[in-house]
Amino acid sequence: MKNVFQLLISLILLLLLLACDSGQIFHKLRPGSKILAFGDSLTHGTGAAPGHGYPEQLEQLIARKVINAGVPGEVSAEGVRRLPGLLDEHQPDLVILCHGGNDLLRKLDKQQLSENLRRMFEAVNQRGIPVVMVAVPEPSLLIDDADLYQELAKELNIPLIEDVLAKLLADRQYKSDRVHLNAAGYGVLTKVIADKLYELRVI
Fold this sequence. Notes:
alpha/beta
């Protein structure tokens, strides 16, 4: 009996440590909950017909309100300035962060991009809203996620959706141009994001 009690105490302490490590608590999203999809053209849905970006497809798939807050051409420094106002306006229950592609395309400083993504996370986290991040690929001969996403996700303990954009943009049938998906590509991205939300038990 004593051993069982000690085991329970150890498990509780472990859970508390994990919670403190991430600072994020994921709750089940109710039917009236809102998700803020924040990013640039890949969030906006550039390359697909209106209404066929991933936020709109995700809203249909999971039956939760998904706000499309994607701005084509936006760099991360602009995103840092734009995000707090949207958080206060919409007061979402979850944020999906997919940003940084334009920094990488323009070969802007990666360390600054990482810092800007950290500031976006902090803006959301300070409001007690959980964050899921989508890794963005770095333009190169062999398309692969920029390393900074995995590094930042590990540092901040953010759930990371990785490899999916890189694989989709390497496959002609899923992209509309070199850096954007088509409706089918956004559909695959939607399914992967939904799977991550089910894995996190928020839906």
